[in-house]
User: Fold this.
Amino acid sequence: MSIQIYNTQSRSKEEFVPVHKGEVRMYVCGPTVYDFLHIGNYRGAIFFNLVRNWFEKSGYSVKYVYNYTDVDDKIINRANDEGVTAEDISKKYIAEFEKDYSYLKLRPHTANPKVSEHMEDIIEIIEGLIENNKAYAVDGDVYYAVQSFEEYGKLSNKKIDEMQEGHRIEVDSRKKHPADFALWKKAKDGEPSWKSPWSDGRPGWHIECSAMSRALLGDTLDIHGGGLDLVFPHHENEIAQSEGCTGHQYVKYWMHNNMLEFGNQKMSKSLGNVRTGRSFLEQYNGEILKYMMLSAHYRSTIDFSEDPVNRAIQALARFYSALALAKTNMDKGGALAPVPEKFQKLLDEQSDKIKDALDDDFGTPEVFAALFEVVREFNKQVRRPGKPNDAMIATSEVFYHWIISQGEVMALFSEPAAEFLKALDDMLLDQKSLKREEIDKLVAQRAQARADKDFAASDEIRDQLIDLGIAVMDAADGSTWEVAK
Assistant:
């Protein structure tokens, strides 16, 4: 099966056929760097990391460009408020985002262009648009003439005549049409500026991505990604600019991830429910954030309220519990034994299901369903009291490496299993209002009762632990426990 992508422009799934054989050129709109990023920004970063990984695993070479918008009104306003330069602000928050990105163990992009580094490319495109009668200069500003581009609205399905002034459209009597948008803005006092044929000024938001993508990836991109909120006006305007300048198709496949909700409300500053990615990572961890972002299909909304977070913790605890058990068994060693045929067959079947799911517009919910199917069978075959036999050790080894391999595409399951399971168990204990010390004490009391051959007391304590949601594993070298999964 070839890779199928839902193209926002055609509103349908299409077979992926690259512009250049064997190569994927992908551009994703990155953040405007004026503050710690809200958690919604991380959905695209996490999802498109998977997209890049899957294309590479499928045999393509990938050029993946993810930009930083470091020239913007919000950055200038923040700099003025703090009495520093706009460059100080953008550098600070690029560094903070890259710290989070590294912590999430997402792979570096091919390039991270900054607007401030591509002024010549921006000016070149604007000059081309003016030459092609797609743009006009007024008093040092330059505007794109939307009526000059017959296909304007083909991505968002918006009609120029239906656009209302004030609805994401800047009202300016100097414009030929209310929907015309700024390509270059004459600088005001105190603003950073660059020299251009029209004025000392700075670019409009939309032209920046057109210029950076063209400079690094060429006239036509295979994939352009971003959040659904960027379809209009940002991506619509990018099409008009790029195609109005070059005369070539700008993007073959438009991919847009959906938004986050908090308690079924869209995240917004007006509602006061904007949360930064940094605050989430500090309270929980990167695995939980990545799991939540990928457990739902990228074109559906995600609820980031307390219940889904708790479900993500429980799900990851099941994976890491199985990985920790497998690693323990592997460390015990033993004679080499063949992997049970039934288990190997299951792995092969679920590998095929995962491939089919990712080939079908990156269906990550089906990927997790396949992974859970393997975890269930592994627990059934291996999670037993006593010393593991050779077949159980062989099953543990193939299971461990299979899960790690499947997780690499999603940047999941690479944490040290036993340590990370302990951290997840502490979160689950907190949900149950239990303390680790209390459970350790009960398990020690049970161990003493077993040593004293007081089996009635031992059984009573075990029942008490079960009621608390604690699973105890007895082995020849002692008993261990974890929160029941």
